[in-house]
Amino acid sequence: MDTKPFVSPSQPAERAQEDRYVVLIPAYKPDARMLKLVRELRAEGLCVQVVDDGSGEIYRDIFDQAQALGCRVARHAVNLGKGRALKTGINAAMNAFSPLDGIVTADADGQHTCRDILRIMARMRENPRALITGARAFDGNIPLKSRLGNSITRRVYHFATGIRCQDTQTGLRGIPAAYLPQMLQLPGERYEYEMTMFLRLREMRLPLEEVTIETIYIDGNKGSHFHPLKDSARIYSVILRFLASSLISFGVDYGLYWLLLGWLDLPPWLCYAFARVVSSGVNYLLNRMTVFKTGGRDAVFRYYLLAATQLSVGAGLVELLHVTLHWSAGWIKIPVDVVLFCLSYLVQRDFVFKERSGQKEPV
């Protein structure tokens, strides 16, 4: 295989031996702020890959200037979205630069500084097997929509994955070279791609580390092309798909419960138990194959230990509330199962399908 030395135009030879990282900047209709960042990065001797995500002919001069500064520029004929631009840039960098230790993605709108990018690289040298991200401090200086959006998303993300993340919306990410092929295969073409990356960390067995960075919002972040409603819907749809197995199992469980209760006139606790036995099997298979993607014989034992406990508690609560409080047998299952669903998901996440030592990582 033909490989090229890790040197970009005008890159100092001593820097080429010291650092093997590429800065990737996806850009859509950028301005002088991107060029300022590029100049600073090139002054540090860093390799830079820029992706023009269909900005149009009027912005060609900016990308030509970036190229003149020593960047590589890949171009989309039309706007395909940030996720696609990131994948285009990762692919281009993997082909153009070799050997490669990792890629640092940065935004083109001035939110990320050269100093913080260098700090991400420094942490990558210390821990080359982790995803290193830049975390902003979401204090009173942050626009309300960004502060509120991140607060909600990070809590939902922690519930879904068990991973604590201060800044789920950051575009400053240091990706180790060993994981770049997997990043190319992740679904998502627009902003949801970055959330998909976070949701797949457990599956990829890629630890997350955060570095506190400078918080920069210029003119209330007007330079951002993020559409609060449309793009937020895409991001949350990714999280909902991630949790879809539990929602499907809930539907199977509740549907069977209603059918048995209405057709066979059985006691509520017995209907609950039968429906839970069926839905627990569906839930196990879906969670093992599509959500946590781990688990062997030990996971089967742990899961059915949980399912038996959940069945006993749920059936007991349904019968107790029905007999003592005279709640409707048809509707009493909803509040009971909402509570048990949340508890069950957390136990599955942190106990049933928890990664065990000795699992393989990319090589």
Helix/strand layout:
Blueprint: H1 13-18, E1 21-27, H2 32-43, E2 47-53, H3 60-68, E3 72-76, H4 82-96, E4 102-105, H5 114-126, E5 131-135, H6 144-161, E6 173-176, H7 180-185, H8 192-199, H9 201-204, E7 208-212, H10 228-242, H11 244-263, H12 268-291, H13 297-324, H14 333-352
Parallel strand pairs: 1-2, 1-4, 2-3, 5-7
Antiparallel strand pairs: 4-6, 5-6
Helix pairs in contact: 6-10, 8-10, 11-12, 12-13, 13-14
Pfam family, one: GtrA_DPMS_TM
Membrane topology: Multi-pass membrane protein
Main location: membrane
What can you tell me about this protein's structure?
By secondary structure, the chain is α/β, with parallel strands linked by helices. The protein has two domains: about 15-240, Spore Coat Polysaccharide Biosynthesis Protein SpsA, Chain A (Alpha-Beta Complex), CATH 3.90.550; about 245-350. Helices cover about 55% and strands about 10% of the residues. The protein has helices spanning about 15-20, 30-45, 60-70, 80-95, 115-125, 145-160, 180-185, 190-200, 200-205, 230-240, 245-265, 270-290, 295-325, 335-350; strands at about 20-25, 45-55, 70-75, 100-105, 130-135, 175, 210. Strands 3-2-1-4-6-5-7 form a seven-stranded mixed beta sheet, with helices on both faces. Helix 2 links the parallel strand 1 and strand 2 (about 45-55). The chain is elongated, with a radius of gyration of 25 Å. The two termini are about 20 Å apart. About 35% of the residues are buried. Residues about 1-15 and about 355-363 have low confidence and may be disordered. InterPro entries: Glyco_trans_2-like (IPR001173), GtrA_DPMS_TM (IPR007267), Nucleotide-diphossugar_trans (IPR029044). Keywords: Membrane, Transmembrane, Transmembrane helix.
